[in-house]
Amino acid sequence: xxxxxxxxxxxxxxxxxxxxxxxxxxxxxxxxxxxxxxxxxxxxxxxxxxxxxxxxxxxxxxxxxxxxxxxxxxxxxxxxxxxxxxxxxxxxxxxxxxxxxxxxxxxxxxxxxxxxxxxxxxxxxxxxxxxxxxxxxxxxxxxxxxxxxxxxxxxxxxxxxxxxxxxxxxxxxxxxxxxxxxxxxxxxxxxxxxxxxxxxxxxxxxxxxxxxxxxxxxxxxxxxxxxxxxxxxxxxxxxxxxxxxxxxxxxxxxxxxxxxxxxxxxxxxxxxxxxxxxxxxxxxxxxxxxxxxxxxxxxxxxxxxxxxxxxxxxxxxxxxxxxxxxxxxxxxxxxxxxxxxxxxxxxxxxxxxxxxxxxxxxxxxxxxxxxxxxxxxxxxxxxxxxxxxxxxxxxxxxxxxxxxxxxxxxxxxxxxxxxxxxxxxxxxxxxxxxxxxxxxxxxxxxxxxxxxxxxxxxxxxxxxxxxxxxxxxxxxxxxxxxxxxxxxxxxxxxxxxxxxxxxxxxxxxxxxxxxxxxxxxxxxxxxxxxxxxxxxxxxxxxxxxxxxxxxxxxxxxxxxxxxxxxxxxxxxxxxxxxxxxxxxxxxxxxxxxxxxxxxxxxxxxxxxxxxxxxxxxxxxxxxxxxxxxxxxxxxxxxxxxxxxxxxxxxxxxxxxxxxxxxxxxxxxxxxxxxxxxxxxxxxxxxxxxxxxxxxxxxxxxxxx
Length: 704
Known about the structure:
- With 704 residues, the protein is mainly β.
- It is 8% helix and 53% strand.
- It has a 22-stranded antiparallel barrel. A 5-stranded mixed sheet has the order 3-9-10-7-8. Strands 4-5-6 form a 3-stranded antiparallel sheet.
- The longest helix has 29 residues, at 12-40.
- The protein is globular and about 65 Å long.
């Protein structure tokens, strides 16, 4: 199946034409917004806050407004004031779709993808084409660093325990350090405040759901309450599933398993200006699967896998007199571990574990006449310990070692003349990496990552911004030292490259965000945001593989190299329109990455359109949602093994709340049972599997 003929192998002129077309579209929409905004200027309230284009209408038909985001500036700030591409997704999005994984919801955002197959463990998140350690992954503010591009996802968690997520697209190293090349993926777990109704002191939520494609049953129980200055939450979950029916009619072989989940959170608020919170999250998964989870059937080694993830976070936050975050300190520890039982004489028992211990301290305050400066500064530190075994001995492909990071950052939001805000920020990071066996010298690197953003509130409803930021990442232990112990008996020969250099990316971006009330009718609202960006890399780290056509092993040779000079161009556009009980959302993203010395096309997720239509029948407490995603051909990647055909997938969901005590969610994912494969950063795949076929979903929730 083919889509969008304009996605053939693109030459320089084609790429420029695509970006130009997007720029023209953005300009036309922005122009319309400015005309309408002038008409509204005298009537719109000064504090009107634009809703994220991905904001959700509740089952009662109430639109969620006044979105506040944290990840873009490490400070609580209304979305309308952010000079970056940011999306905020609430709990309702996960409930409506009864998502099997985090990726099911977030892949509908522009510039975001989760590729790798039907198994959630195979789905690798990407933001603007960056993945692994080039994305800062946070869970309740704690860094989860077991994301170095391995095909087993570190996002093993029950989506039922999430209160929301934020995605920052674009350079974020000036605040988060290494890993900020593509942006930030920040997940928030539930607390008692998310579940307690006004005036309620204690409550219980029980939920049972079923998915037909993999015969999955998910049971969750949440107990929560608040007494005086104390509040708490205990959430338990059990998930049981079988083989997955794929879009081509076949099944994953095998895929039986179950997962137990726990979330415990305790909070103490001795005053309205101080909160101390302790969170512990634990997920344990046991299943029969493939040693390569991206493989659905065909060539593979089957095994029994035991996967555990736990995350413990202690956080203290104080607020100023205006209820803005003033001082915050965080200490965290997380563990991501995978154990594989011996499957064949070739695939022996193996383990892989990454433990991270870290902490951060930051302070925000207002300075200057009329509070013209909002200064945020702080320190971050963490240490990753990586351990792996194969057949009971150290695994040379994934060597044991440590990586330590210490960073200091500062940001100042400066109010200039009326409507203009200048936001400079910078961070200094120092990295140290070492192998336990000392077979290679220790690695040390340091880098200052600056960023400068300028925004103009052109009209009360129209904001324009531009930014320039530099990002830095040192190579990981696996990238430098991965090595096959016995190439003669391995299907893939991994070759070390200890001479890898740190990669540096420099990104320039322009964008706009606007909201217009009553553009076409008395009860409607139009939200539009868009951006264009250009990134120039030096020493970009890329995974490459070559095929050995001679008989015998190995058939593939894989290693990491530095691409001396690479660049990426892209853009994103989001449109949201509300009128009465209807909500319409549309998003588009496009990007291209190229090695400028060899003219080869590097990893670049295909062009993508996503759309949603939601109708809320408030008289019946019922909402219905249609969701579509159209993905173009990716036939221009110079790594041919990664190329995919275009596809489209459509979902239909409904939520009904007959009383405050009961809620029913129903739906069909992949309504037309389309067979498709997603684009994945993994270059060595044998062969990649199809995604999940049609799946009927139903859930019953009781609140007591």
